[in-house]
Amino acid sequence: MPTVAASRGSIEHSSLYNPDLAPATSERRTWGTYNYAALWVSMSVNILTYMLAASLIQGGMDWKQAVLTVFLGNSIVLVPMLLNSHPGAKYGIPFPVLARASFGVLGANIAAVLRALVACGWFGIQSWIGGEAINTLLATLWPGWTRNPHGVAICFMIFWAINLLVVLKGIEYIRFLQGISAPILLGVGLLLLGWAYTSAGGFGPMLSARSKFQNTSEFLKFLIPALNGTVGFWSTVSLNIPDFTRFANNQRGQMIGQAVALPTTMTLYSFIGVAVTSATVVIYGTAIWDPVQLLSRFHSPVAVVISLLAILLATVNVNIGANVVSPANDFSNLWPRKISFKLGGAITCFMGIAMMPWKLLANHRTFIFGWLGGYAAVLGPVAGIMICDYFIVRRRVLLVNDLYLRHSAYEYSAGFNWRAIAALLIGTGVALIGLLVPPLRFLYDYSWFVGFAVAFFIYLAIAARPVLNAPMQEA
């Protein structure tokens, strides 16, 4: 493959460059172990973590099975997370730029848009939850509001508009708000846990709900897609984690921070969701997996108002930090000269409505089997291709300047690496075929794993080998 040496000055004039996508300079690379641990605490302590764990109880698991499933799934997804973290920390480049090495300088838009669309869906889901919280809050303060047939839709749009305003404030405002979300949501979770403990009569009764599965076969039938969905929950960030590790001051710090914080925080906060949802079976006779709906049953208006206000503030913070930063960069990558971070964030907000989050949250089956399992079939292959390309094909050597230039080392065929695109299509197709052919349903139940493995080995077999002795350019 030909290579083109270029200075920082020359890449700044490239159509593939803008300041948001530029390699992080040494002055910006200040994140250490604590920062990455704090990042995962702030992202893991959120309403959707609670709902993921709670949905496992609604699906029939007991509390031990649900907590173990969450821990195992997050320990698995930590592996591709750390692998994709490496190039971000080494070269200071964000996810859409890293994808140019394997998919081509233009083909990377395919991977970036796929990741961005999933983030738009998550943005819409979080916005719907926030809208529910506003609706419940208004119903508590103004009982007549419940007679409004369009109340939930109106509140959804109000919360959506709040998010859009925060996005337009810019990235620095977003980072400021991100730091206060975790303690607020942790407080709400502990409030619910305390209520469940008191109402159910202690941990014994509240965790007494038994598994609904009659035998091992029934349990495995639910466990496999549940585990796949748990992996899929963070498979999004396992791709765009370079957006964060590009600011690392060393590899060891970012790896330790993530390895310690991700599985432990997810498991601990999931336990709150599991324990409270298990208690609702004892208290109400049915599993209530949505904390906003559960709060609406509280008899104390003061407790309801305070909790819902806390959920609203924290959900804005988590939604912007986890679901806007990456797709804003991804959409910016489509047209770096014209689409800024703010415009990319605005596109994310509008796409979030188009994803119809009310349908994705209809019940635990559409959430786990439909949403989480469906996009895992697409993102698993992207992860497999990128990891194979960076660690095996290129042996961790990237020409950073060439990632921002046309007709360079990553031009491939008119900017597209059709080998990577073929591997993506085959990996996704094999995973999704389980939806169409019932005897092959297991392929879809394992969609992330199947898609990752198929795309990884297909790409390994057909990828063109680069010249590995070329001089490495540092960011």
Descriptive report:
This protein is an all-alpha fold and 475 residues long. The protein has one domain (31-375): Orthogonal Bundle (Hydantoin permease). Helices cover 71% and strands 0% of the residues. It has 23 helices and no strands. α5 (95-103) packs across α20 (364-393). The chain starts with 7 loop residues before the first helix and ends in a 13-residue tail after the last helix.
* CATH class label: Mainly Alpha
Outline, from the CA principal axes? Answer: globular
The overall pLDDT, averaged over residues, is: 84
Main sheet properties: none
In the CATH hierarchy, what is the superfamily? Hydantoin permease
Number of strands: 0
Structural class: mainly alpha
What is the topological layout?
Blueprint: H1 8-11, H2 33-44, H3 47-58, H4 63-91, H5 95-103, H6 108-141, H7 151-169, H8 171-178, H9 181-200, H10 203-206, H11 216-233, H12 235-240, H13 242-245, H14 251-284, H15 291-295, H16 301-323, H17 325-334, H18 341-354, H19 357-360, H20 364-393, H21 418-436, H22 441-445, H23 447-462
Helix pairs in contact: 2-14, 3-4, 3-14, 3-20, 4-11, 4-14, 4-20, 5-6, 5-20, 6-7, 6-16, 6-17, 6-18, 6-20, 7-16, 7-18, 8-16, 9-14, 9-16, 11-20, 17-18, 20-21, 20-23, 21-23
Summarize the structure.
Helices cover 71% and strands 0% of the residues. It is an all-alpha fold and 475 residues long. The protein starts with 7 loop residues before the first helix and ends in a 13-residue tail after the last helix.
Q: Characteristics of this structure?
A:
Hydantoin permease; disordered C terminus; mainly alpha
